[in-house]
Amino acid sequence: MALKDVMKDIQGYTEIVEEIQTLKKYGSDYTDRKGEVERMIALLHPKTVALKVSEVIKETQTAKTFRLVGAAGHLPPFQAGQYINVFVEVGGIRTSRPYSIASSPSQTGFYDITIRSVEDGFVSGYFLEEVTVGETFESSSPAGTFTYNPLFHGKDLVFLAGGSGVTPFMSMIREVAQKGLDRQIHLVYGSRDVSDIIFEEELRLITARHPNIAVSHVISNPPEPYEGLKGFITAELMKDLLGDVSGKTFSVCGPEVMYAFCLSELEKLGVARRKIRTEVYGPPRDVTSQPGWPRGVKALDTFMVRIRGGKTIPAKAGEPLMISLERSGIVIPALCRSGECSLCRTKLLSGKVFQPDGVKLRKSDRQFGYIHPCMAYPLEDLELLL
Ligand SMILES: Cc1cc2nc3c(=O)[nH]c(=O)nc-3n(C[C@H](O)[C@H](O)[C@H](O)COP(=O)(O)OP(=O)(O)OC[C@H]3O[C@@H](n4cnc5c(N)ncnc54)[C@H](O)[C@@H]3O)c2cc1C
Ligand code: FES
């Protein structure tokens, strides 16, 4: 029996063939557009983006903005609040770090990332000291969910920023100012010293022109005498600045110590947890001070990690496994480096790790022994399946 006859016996075959012929006759034949969606996805959300530094702007003594243009044409669009994970090679070690895009999404000619140097920082130090105009990098596509959603966040927004944590808010503020969007924004921005404030002049100009945007600087170590707001972003300070907090949505971004502090202050004000959004800014500076860290294990204790079918590497207890792997030349997929996105999900075959609160492991991951090496710390010798 010929194939054609077999096909005719399949229920619905004749009707489908007739329908295809009708579509072709009336101009709705999509065969020549095959692959169009795939091409569009690759254009809007490519796996990697080639970037070139077109400008370096000194913001403060410890922070610089790197203006990045597409090294191979266009840049994918992004939403204010998203970040890119920038891949770098420092001292022969291939690693990456996420940085929020500080520029406005109204234009996609460039991404601005603003980096503050961290004490003993591996990548931030490299950027601040070595990266100049013309340098090229690869990054991920823009990612992250620290973005505005009109359905859930309303129009009355409070941004609590600490240090370089102002960057995603800057993108949101620039967008609201440029597009004249109908949103009330109050940025409460904590800095150690007045000289540490990033974007001070631009924020001053924006607030002068846009009555719906307010900025309050809070300085923790001001020079004396100092007239402005001092100390930390406490419940009392927020009450004085913001008045009635009901109906407001709070977003927090800054160093990890700031979260626990701001969350408890917001709790004192009676702000419901669902009205508070946070952006995690990478692994904790000192994991041994996290709740649940086992007493007997010291940050410098070193364990051996065996990779099934590969080499065995040393790993310090106080350092995320992902960094130990990178130090040994093993690069695994990474995006958020904060335990959130699941891209680095890896099977732990044996041994015990510490994963701080906030690491978004699925129930099934816990059950079947998967970990997020970007936020997992070895507590004994391990075996991993990569
Ligand atoms: C979503 C998101 C957005 C962010 N946005 C910003 C932003 O806009 N601006 C900003 O400034 N920061 C931002 N960060 C923080 C940023 O990603 C880095 O964590 C920060 O720049 C510090 O990185 P670092 O490498 O300098 O320091 P660390 O990674 O903390 O390095 C500290 C120490 O670890 C050692 N080390 C680390 N990695 C290696 C390695 N691979 N090999 C050998 N030694 C190593 C070094 O000895 C160094 O002393 C963001 C983080 C997240 C998660
Ligand atoms: S890189 Fe996102 S969870 Fe590890």
Total strand segments = 19
CATH architecture level-2 label of the largest domain:
3-Layer(aba) Sandwich
Percentage of residues in DSSP E strands: 25-35%
- Taken together, the total number of domains comes to 3
Q: What is the helix tally?
A: 11
Helix content: 25-40%
Ligands, ions, cofactors: flavin-adenine dinucleotide, FE2/S2 (inorganic) cluster
Cα distance spanning the termini: 50 Å
Q: Which CATH first-tier class of the largest domain would you pick?
A: Alpha Beta
Mean pLDDT: 94
CATH H-tier superfamily of the largest domain:
Nucleotide-binding domain of ferredoxin-NADP reductase (FNR) module
CATH level 3 topology of the largest domain: Rossmann fold
What is the H/E string?
A: HHHEEEEEHEHEHEHEEHEHEEEHEEHEEE
Please give the order of strands in the largest beta sheet: 4-3-6-1-2-5
Which terms summarize this structure?
single chain; 386 residues; alpha/beta; Elongation Factor Tu (Ef-tu), domain 3; Rossmann fold; Ubiquitin-like (UB roll); 3 domains; six-stranded antiparallel β-sheet; six-stranded parallel β-sheet; 11 helices; globular; binds flavin-adenine dinucleotide; binds FE2/S2 (inorganic) cluster
Topology:
Elements (H helix, E strand, L loop, with lengths): L2 H7 L3 H13 L10 H9 L3 E13 L2 E8 L12 E8 L2 E8 L10 E6 L6 H8 L5 E5 L9 H4 L2 E7 L4 H13 L4 E8 L8 H10 L3 E7 L9 E2 L4 H8 L6 E5 L2 H13 L7 E4 L22 E6 L4 E5 L4 H7 L18 E5 L2 E2 L8 H6 L1 E2 L5 E2 L3 E4 L1
Parallel strand pairs: 7-8, 7-11, 8-9, 9-10, 11-12, 13-19
Antiparallel strand pairs: 1-2, 1-6, 2-5, 3-4, 3-6, 13-14, 15-17, 15-19, 16-18
Bound molecules: flavin-adenine dinucleotide and FE2/S2 (inorganic) cluster.
